[in-house]
Amino acid sequence: MGFSLDVERLNYCRDGAYNNDRRNGVRKAHGQKNADRGSWSPARGQVVHRHQMMYSPEMPNPSRPASEFCKDRIRHFETKADHNKKEALAFFIALIFCTLASPLFIALGQDVFLSKVVPSVLSTVATGCAVWLQQRKPQQLWSLYRTMQRQLENELNGFEFLISDYRESTEPEKLLAERTAVICANAHQLWVPLIPSPDSLASALTADQTQLNRRPGK
Question: For the segment 105-146, what is each residue's pLDDT rounded down to a tens digit?
């Protein structure tokens, strides 16, 4: 009798531990599933702070330090400036190479392929690069984003070392956030005129095609 009671008690403890482990596993799987979807929900019994329920990593958090906000914008403009720099230099080099190489193939080509086909391809590529640089304006975007990056870095240095206006300000963090927002807004206003319009694109294509038809060897 005593042996059977001990066996039943052991089975009860084992089943109880198993059920607890199973419930914990379901909670972890539920949390992981929500994390995979990009959302987050607390498990049952988990202590959650108010700011965790109100804000997610994708949402702007007003309690975030102004320096972190400024550094995030600096990285944003730095990435865009580097991208447009590489794009501008690549298309500019291709334009120069195709423009200078085309007359050489026309003058020195011994057959139809070298004297006609290759110069035509190079002229077409040069025209496409010229239109892209005129309409996409990566060199101007490079200058714009780099300027915004340097301005934000200057504001961040003033905030960290308490120089310029930040030395006399009673709320330097608020001043940094305000100036960061102003610089970002100004960058948008300067970016809008650089967007290519259909009319300017059509006129550029017509002008470049006319210039291409006037080249020798056509």
Answer: 999 988 999 999 999 999 999 999 999 999 999 999 999 999
Cα 205 to the chain's mean position, in Å?
30
Task: Answer for the pair 133, 139: CB distance below 8 angstroms, yes or no.
Answer: yes
Q: How many CA atoms lie within 13 A of 102 on its CB side?
A: 21
Structure tokens at 72: 């995030």
pTM of the predicted protein model: 0.65
Structural domain spans, the chain? 66-209
Q: What is the 3-state secondary structure (H, E, C) of 33-70?
A: HHHHCCCCCCCCCCCCCHHHHHCCCCCCCCCCCHHHHH
Q: Cα 100 to the chain's mean position, in Å?
A: 35
Structure tokens at 184: 């970002």
